[in-house]
Amino acid sequence: MVTGRGADELLATLYREHGEALTRYVRHLTRDGHTVEDVVQETMVRAWQRPAVLERTPDSARAWLFTVARNLVVDEARSARNRREHGTEHPVDRAEADRTDAVLDRIVVADALASLSPEHRRVVVDAYWLGHTVPEIARRHDVPEGTAKSRLHYGLRALRLALQERGVTR
């Protein structure tokens, strides 16, 4: 039985003679560069752990290497990790915050706005979403400034009540 430095030399010879063909074979089976490297490396580690493999005839050693590599690929394909995790060639550049709350808030506000009268809804949207002043709102809707201001006041009161009914505010 070969041990120590002799085993390392036999392993290096084994890899030199069969490594390229083994790599092609595993690439054909997996089509994943990272897995190819892992499987070939694990196959060679197993050969190193079994010195008797190193002493086989070249054809016998090659058959053993290809069988071990195929079994490793099959084991990986059957693993729970493989069924649940999926890699990507293009990793995410940055993580994005969960915007679920913001989307839900928009839905609730839009629903509350829809419950307002059209006159109140227009002035509230003009003032708070479009940033218009009371004089600008009055000009846009061709109403006196006092009417625009009154509609804004009562529109905001109705909006607050609609949001309270939806459980948003106290």
TrEMBL record:
What are the alphabetically sorted keywords of the record?
Answer: DNA-binding, Sigma factor, Transcription, Transcription regulation
Query: Sorted alphabetically, which PROSITE patterns does this protein's record hold?
Result: SIGMA70_ECF
The RNA polymerase sigma-70 region domain extends over: 14-81, 112-160
Which superkingdom, per the lineage?
Bacteria
**GO annotation terms (biological process):** DNA-templated transcription initiation
Q: Name one GO molecular function term.
A: sigma factor activity
Q: Which PANTHER family match?
A: ECF RNA POLYMERASE SIGMA FACTOR SIGL (PTHR43133:SF52), RNA POLYMERASE ECF-TYPE SIGMA FACTO (PTHR43133)
Family, per entry: Belongs to the sigma-70 factor family. ECF subfamily.
* The name this protein goes by in its record: RNA polymerase sigma factor
Q: Which organism is it from?
A: Curtobacterium luteum
Per the UniProt record, the lineage of the source organism begins with: Bacteria, Bacillati, Actinomycetota, Actinomycetes, Micrococcales
